[in-house]
UniProtKB/TrEMBL annotation, chain A:
<feature type="domain" description="Cation/H+ exchanger transmembrane">
    <location>
        <begin position="85"/>
        <end position="482"/>
    </location>
</feature>
<dbReference type="GO" id="GO:0051453">
    <property type="term" value="P:regulation of intracellular pH"/>
</dbReference>
<dbReference type="GO" id="GO:0016323">
    <property type="term" value="C:basolateral plasma membrane"/>
</dbReference>
<feature type="compositionally biased region" description="Polar residues">
    <location>
        <begin position="717"/>
        <end position="730"/>
    </location>
</feature>
<protein>
    <recommendedName>
        <fullName>Sodium/hydrogen exchanger</fullName>
    </recommendedName>
</protein>
<dbReference type="InterPro" id="IPR018422">
    <property type="entry name" value="Cation/H_exchanger_CPA1"/>
</dbReference>
<keyword id="KW-0812">Transmembrane</keyword>
<dbReference type="InterPro" id="IPR001970">
    <property type="entry name" value="NHE-1-like"/>
</dbReference>
<keyword id="KW-0112">Calmodulin-binding</keyword>
UniProtKB/TrEMBL annotation, chain B:
<dbReference type="GO" id="GO:0030154">
    <property type="term" value="P:cell differentiation"/>
</dbReference>
<keyword id="KW-0519">Myristate</keyword>
<dbReference type="GO" id="GO:0005737">
    <property type="term" value="C:cytoplasm"/>
</dbReference>
<keyword id="KW-0449">Lipoprotein</keyword>
<dbReference type="InterPro" id="IPR002048">
    <property type="entry name" value="EF_hand_dom"/>
</dbReference>
<dbReference type="GO" id="GO:0032587">
    <property type="term" value="C:ruffle membrane"/>
</dbReference>
<keyword id="KW-0963">Cytoplasm</keyword>
<keyword id="KW-0106">Calcium</keyword>
<keyword id="KW-0966">Cell projection</keyword>
Length: 769, 201
């Protein structure tokens, strides 16, 4: 048995010895002959294996069984847990080998592992449990992934590009289905492969069309898996991903349509029209069901302030119910799930506690990650398991036709779409969209539940296409993206300035539209938002939060994040570490005098001695109390009293204090010379209630005072100047002489690393304000 | 609505089209709207704008209206404010919202971007001195939040302060450097049509 372990070649890693041991254990158990299928159908095997321990018992005297094996009771959960464990360990293993995971996308590796495991199981027991049955796939494995996608769907780009996405999803998929189906039929009729035992010309037009409809749908799981690693720009990502989500409706309708036609045997024009109507019902019905459950969830979350612990559960349950309800009526479950997540999110997030939000986020990520891993592994296993009918003509023509159809579809549609878009899609964009049309496990599962006589050859072809897209396209898309220099996602954090200007632009454009007298895009968006604010929010959001505008919510979220980051990075005790990231006046100068080559480290400047640092810390500690009252007004808690969040109170205050300190301890450059920065910070205790740290600012004649309008002319950004007249919070000395000579106070930036692994977009409105 | 001529486009329109980049059809439509707003007059005044009903929900309507009368938006060298504007100036302000055409050199794109940013800068800079101060920014945030009522000055101040703080913190302090303004600040002018029912007041 151990000799079979040899082919498992990951033993190169020293530190994964423990993992290897676990793997061996897992394989051992699997091979021990106690492997059972997840379906009850193969329960006959249970009996044969039960016999073994049973017989042992019978041969001895009937004494008290100290140790016994009772596997069958726990077989199903045990089996499931083993698979999930295997999947997770695989995931772990791949990320320990950075070189491999850079070259090959995770999905390919996982399929390979699945193939391997399937192969081992087959060798061991001559058959493989049918793990990727459609029930497991559609009921257990797919929903978490879709919910994760739907809940964190970036609403703004999605809605802005909805026209394009719908065109690709609906028209593109239809085109693909008919093109592939029709041409494959033609190929079947023409091709006469005398080496194959299958008579291709037997396959009628309807099965071909059915096959076409199954294979034409872009798969969200595969797209997510591959696109996540290439960090492509937001527009392309949302286009391909949105298409993969919305084409589910089309696929469902086409599938059922062709299946019905196959049963009934004849097609008429009325049926075609009914098909169209059915498409609208499936799509819109799915969305409505989802929206309904979403609203229910939002409404429920309004009352959960006393039972915070089960808040995440409501989110998950309502979403799952939405999915299942849609499936009951043959509506599009995926669209229902997306609608549910997207609708409930802004309201639920306003109602639930911060911890619940984190819980939801991490549970969704965890489940979707595990699901995805399992799906790919099972794909591999199922490939080994199924009977395949190899017919080279059919297979190659399918692959070629799929590619050709996709390319023609994308190019043709883009030509039409570009007439209506403001930001046109370039050729590079089109290429990526076409290349990103990956097929995945949904196609496989749909093929699995076919009742056609040609099921096997179809399934083989589907698997071939999936493998081709995932392996070839998945592996090469990353180098191609680099080669074509496609715009990547910029990783910058959403800043409050961007948020302010987003809102500002929305209002501005709405105003201009009103002046022009034309009821455009912005006008309706504005109307929807006003309606939302006036009625919907009052019903669905608890208490005062319903009146909180978007901007403030964003600001508080940002504050929270910063406060947490600060605490995590050690907070106020690491004064010195904040210095390296100081941005100084020097940085404005370079635009006028010298090239901006200063790196953060060069501006590092621990000018404060240890003694001073201690003094500053002492001040902070003693003053925290005194400033508490003053800072109360900034605190989120004046809006909503939330007993759960008292802990964050201190964090926010601490951060406030740090901010105040930042304003006071300022670095000003001495000037044109190098990048070195001089500062004079000294502590002047005793002035007023709160000892402040006064700064010796550069004199008005120094070149520190910068004309900011020059900045605007030279850069393309808006720059701002700060007044010397300060608010009570910022006690800086050295007033300026008039508006003309304003000094910009360079301040310490946030201490600690800016690790923002927040993938979610913080758009809370269904249609963003 | 005034008497609308249905003659072919007058020669001024061609000139305007060249100057602002609008097509003749767009200019015709905008001209109709101009006439509608100004009640047949040749110039627009502030009161004419105040008559637009749907504008009254807009929190920044004052700034928007002022932007039309701000001479700096007409050409880079002008200063000060006008009290009435004619059609040409109206068009120039509108042209800031034209979507960029697909084939553009990088230079043109940069120029367009700067134009749009300058427009927004002028809107923020209420006293016209070429600088945006913290007070201006605070005022902006207050206006944006003014529709929500309950929250008062403290929070909007905090937000404006935080925003200013952020600017001060960024390297080379580029506000909005990641903001694709050339693709966001656009209106679909081609579809502009004066809706007959859209009356003033």
């Amino acid at each position: 048995m151990f000799s079979r372990m040899a082919p498992r070649g990951r033993s190169g890693l020293g530190r994964s010895l423990a993992e290897l041991g676990l793997l061996l254990l897992a394989i051992l158990v699997l091979l021990d002959g106690t492997v059972l299928s997840l379906e009850a159908a193969t329960s006959s095997e249970i009996d044969t294996h039960e016999g073994k321990p049973g017989t042992h018992k019978n041969t001895s005297k009937k004494s008290f069984p100290v140790l016994g094996i009772k596997y069958d009771d726990v077989s199903v959960p045990f089996e499931i847990s083993l698979w999930v464990l295997l999947a997770s360990l695989m995931k772990l293993g791949f990320h320990l080998i950075p070189r491999l995971s850079n070259v090959v996308p995770e999905s390919c590796l996982l399929i390979s592992v699945g193939l391997l495991v399937g192969g081992i199981l087959k060798l061991a027991r001559d058959e493989v449990p049918p793990v990727l049955s459609d029930r497991i796939f559609f009921l257990c494995l797919l929903p978490p992934i879709i919910l994760d996608a739907g809940y964190f769907l970036p609403i703004r780009p999605f809605v802005e590009n909805i026209g394009t996405i719908l065109m690709f999803a609906v028209v593109g998929t239809l085109w693909n289905a008919f093109f592939v189906g029709g041409l494959i039929y033609a190929v079947c009729q023409i091709a006469q492969d005398k080496y194959s035992e299958i008579d291709l010309s037997n396959i009628g037009i309807l099965p071909c069309l059915l096959f076409g409809s199954i294979i034409s749908a872009v798969d969200p799981v595969a797209v997510l898996a591959v696109f996540e690693e290439i960090h492509i720009n937001e527009l392309l990502h949302i286009l391909v991903f949105g298409e993969s989500l919305l084409n589910d409706a089309v696929t469902v309708v086409l599938y059922h349509l062709f299946e019905e036609f196959m049963e009934s045997g004849s097609v008429s024009a009325v049926d075609a029209i009914l098909g169209l109507v059915s498409f609208l019902i499936v799509a819109l019905g799915g969305v409505l069901v989802g929206a309904f459950y979403g609203i229910l969830a939002a409404f429920t979350s309004r009352f959960t302030s006393h039972t915070r612990v089960i808040e995440p559960l409501f989110v998950f349950l309502y979403s799952y119910m939405a999915y299942l309800s849609a499936e009951v009526f043959h509506l599009s479950g995926i669209m229902s799930l997306i609608a549910c997540g997207a609708v409930m999110r802004p309201y639920v997030e306003a109602n639930i506690s911060h911890k619940s939000h984190t819980t939801i986020k991490y549970f969704l990520k965890m489940w979707s990650s595990v699901s995805e891993t399992l799906i790919f592994i099972f794909l591999g296993v199922a490939t080994v398991e199924g009977e395949h009918h190899w017919n080279w003509v059919f297979l190659t023509s399918t692959v070629v036709l799929c590619l050709v159809a996709r390319v023609i579809g994308v190019v043709g549609l883009t030509y039409i779409i570009n007439k209506f878009r403001i930001v046109k899609l370039t050729t590079k964009d089109q290429f990526i969209i076409a290349y990103g049309g990956l097929r995945g496990a949904i196609a496989f599962s749909l093929g699995f539940i076919l009742h056609s006589e040609h099921k096997k050859i179809f399934l083989t072809a589907i698997i071939t296409v999936i493998f081709f897209t995932v392996f070839v396209q998945g592996m090469t898309i990353k180098p191609l993206v680099e080669l074509l220099a496609v715009k990547k996602k910029h990783e910058a954090k959403r800043s409050i300035n961007e948020e302010i200007h987003t809102r500002f632009l929305d209002h501005l454009l709405t105003g201009i539209e009103d002046i022009c007298g034309h009821y455009g895009h912005h006008h309706w968006k504005n109307k929807l938002n006003r309606f939302n604010k006036k009625y919907v929010k009052k019903i669905l959001i608890a208490g005062d939060r319903s009146k909180e505008p978007q901007l403030i919510a964003f600001y508080h979220k940002l504050e929270m994040k910063n406060a947490i980051q600060m605490v995590e990075s050690g907070g106020g005790s690491k004064l010195n570490s904040t210095f390296p990231s100081t941005v100084s006046m020097q940085n404005i100068q370079p635009k006028i005098h010298s090239p901006p080559s200063a790196r953060p480290s060069e501006r590092a400047l621990p000018q404060l001695t240890k003694g001073r640092e201690e003094e500053i810390r002492q001040i902070l500690r003693t003053n925290l109390q005194k400033t508490r009252q003053r800072l109360q007004s900034y605190n989120r808690h004046t809006l909503v009293v939330d007993p759960d969040e008292e802990g964050f109170d201190d964090l926010i205050l601490k951060k406030r204090r740090m901010m105040e300190l930042d304003w006071k301890v300022c670095k000003t450059s001495s000037h044109k010379s190098s990048n070195a920065i001089y500062s004079q910070a000294y502590v002047k205790p005793g002035a007023e209630n709160v000892p402040t740290i006064k700064i010796d600012l550069a004199s008005p004649q120094s070149p520190d005072s910068v004309r900011l309008l020059d900045e605007v002319v030279q850069d393309q950004g808006l720059t701002m100047s700060l007044p010397s007249s300060s608010s009570r919070a910022y006690k800086t000395s050295g007033k300026d002489d008039g508006r003309d000579q304003q000094k910009l106070l360079r301040c310490l930036s946030d201490p600690g690393p800016d690790v923002d692994d927040d993938e979610d977009y913080d758009d809370d409105e269904p249609v963003p304000t | 609505m005034g008497a609308l001529k249905s003659t072919p486009a007058p020669i001024e329109h061609h000139d305007l089209s060249e100057k602002t980049g609008f097509s003749l059809r767009q200019i015709r439509v905008l001209h109709k709207r101009f006439k509608q707003l100004s009640d047949g007059d040749d110039v627009l005044r502030r009161e004419d704008f105040l008559g637009i009903s749907s504008l009254k929900y807009n929190p920044i309507r004052k700034e928007i209206i002022e932007a039309f009368f701000n001479r700096r938006n007409f050409s880079p060298s002008c200063e000060g404010r006008a009290n009435e504007i004619d059609f040409e100036e109206f068009l120039v302000v509108m042209s800031h919202f034209k979507p960029p055409c697909s084939k553009m050199t990088d230079e043109q794109r940069k120029n367009i971007r700067r134009e749009k940013l300058k427009f927004i800068f002028n809107m923020h800079d209420s006293d016209g001195d070429g600088l945006i101060t913290l007070e201006d920014y605070r005022h902006l945030v207050e206006e944006l939040l003014s529709r929500s009522g309950a929250l008062g000055k403290e929070t909007s101040r905090a937000i404006a302060d935080a925003a200013m703080f952020e600017v001060a913190r960024t390297v080379g302090h580029r506000l909005l450097s990641n903001f694709d303004i050339e693709s966001r600040m656009n209106i679909r002018f081609l579809k502009t049509d004066v809706i007959p029912g859209c009356r003033l007041g």
